[in-house]
Amino acid sequence: MGTAGFLVLLLSSSFLFEGNCLDDSGQKSESSELCPSDIESVLRQMSAALSAQQVEINHLQEENKENKVEIRHLQEENKENKVEIRHLQEENKHLLLENQVRQVAFSTALMESGGGQFFGPYSTDTTLVYKHVITNTGNAYNPLTGIFTAPVRGVYHFHVHIFELFTGSYFARVSLVKNGSKMVTAQEHQSTRSNGAASNSVSVLLEAGDEVYVVLWSSHRIFDDTNHYNTFSGHLLFTSDL
């Protein structure tokens, strides 16, 4: 019961004492006024009720103060948890990205479809575009340009294989090229009346953004069809921060 309601109840009950006072002769008085003793009793009850109510208010205020402290503590803890969650999310994102760049491998063949054809001879060294993509994990190889671009610093291994039909007119010769510089060369010199093939490979340290591709030398040619005799492949061996 609230303080106001309790006071109203006390005041209302006090009127029950009307006319119950004793006069000087010891007889009940017919006066409608409250007896002083009754008023004093009501005031004592009101004072006691107010004191009890104040004690309860003080208790609730202390409890509310403690709750506010607990709420602030929980808010700070929640803020710290949010910071930790963001940190873990960033760390997880970094690990996922690192794992993705470590997964780099591709394998391609020269012709995607169609009948057999010769590539070359050309008047200048020409980059070969291997259009048939067998696998391209990490998407570092571009089938539109024939160029592999290193996504991360590390040691990579590359392999090239070529094939040529014997005609007695041209030789087959290609090079694995890094940023415009030839690294290794595969060459087929037909000394007998038969088809020929050649291959070569290299392991090389690349910086992120370095390009590797295959160049057909000028005045040379190769032959390919949907049997995919001519291939270009590579993969990341390991990353390097040194």
TrEMBL record:
One Pfam family cited in the UniProt record for this chain: C1q
Compartments, record wording: Secreted
Signal sequence coordinates: 1-21
Keywords associated with the record: Coiled coil, Secreted, Signal
The UniProt record lists the keyword Secreted: yes
Residue runs in coiled coils: 43-98
Gene Ontology terms: cellular component: extracellular region
Primary site of residence: secreted
Domain C1q, first and last residues per copy: 99-242
Name this polypeptide is given: C1q domain-containing protein
Organism: Knipowitschia caucasica (Caucasian dwarf goby)
